[in-house]
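Please, why this fold?
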Amino acid sequence: MNEATLQYVRQHADDDVRLLALRGSRDPEVDMPVALQQIAGLQTARRKLPSWAATEGILFPPHLALEQCSSEQTALYKRSVCCDLVATHTTHTTHATHRSLIDLTGGFGIDFSFLAPLFDQAVYVEQQEELCHLARHNFPLLGLSCSVVCTNGADYLHHIDHATLIFLDPARRDAHGARTYGISDCTPDVLTLRDELLERADFVMLKLSPMLDWRKTVSDLGEPWVREVHIVSTGNECKELLVVLSKKAASLGLRLVCVNDDDLFEITLPSSPQPNTYPSQNSPLSYHSSYLYEPNASIMKAGCFAELSARFSITQIAQNSHLFFSEKPIANFPGRKFRIEAVSALNKKELKEKILPLRQANITVRNFPLSVSELRKRLKISEGGSHYLFATTLANGDHVLMVCQRI
């Protein structure tokens, strides 16, 4: 990037990229496509990658590569997982070891940049020359001392001697740019490479699509080799499925971790079967002293509801409703917490008394015959306000509406 283009980026770093594209630049030395890519990248990075955005001189890739890369928050979580793996490996090794990382699908290098400092040696592998060029420019600015190799990751794997950790984030788009979700449909196909990966590394960490069913993923990869599964959410939106493989996994049991921002819920499988408990017809839901709990997105995806009930001594409203209640508040519950103010059946008398006086409410539907929009239209309640309205089905089949306040 020449000096004129760099100055243009600095001067217009906060401006609307679309308007800049329409106006162009009077300076013929300004490379407008490059300038617009860098301004758009910087603006995205301020939200998604604050430490990178704050580093002077960082260059950004085209929009798609920046869209697909990890956020700083999820990269930091991977770093914490990796810290535990490295610590465990060091504890069980009787002599000093040379710790090495190989990222076979480097991409823009976000995950690599946060994992690399944990190792004595780190190798970034990426087949796109443009991304390798950016990596060679950006990594020194971030204080990283590492190797950048421009080649196909699957081919590079065949020449690896041994590594402490191999990281892969298989591409989720086909040759035509369409999204793919199945493990075998991604590039590289880690199912084909699994045995070789396990032979050449103490640990293999896979970043996979949040659309995947984690149980099927474990089955596809081979249950004896899966050591950990992390369902990672931010802002209550599931972002990725993180899977750790190891030849030593079989004797340790499977560690399932559901994380959403600062909330973390962890179990080890196979665990003792936990019975599902549901309220009787004389449900304490009718008492104003009851509290309602909605698990976060990661727990919803994991489906470990019986374990959640046992851990916090709470009762699931019904098998398919995935809402819970207790008579006492639970401060550290991993999800949203509410105080129940009223419970109404769908008959006209109760609706008129308990629901219709509401003019605004935030509506959530769980295992209920009407959608949010249908219910909102029927009740004539607008979006917003401080009240939360949960529409669900009880264990006895009754449809109810619960008026709540968040706590």
Observations:
- Residues 72-91 form the longest helix (20 residues).
- The radius of gyration is 25 Å.
- The longest strand covers residues 335-344.
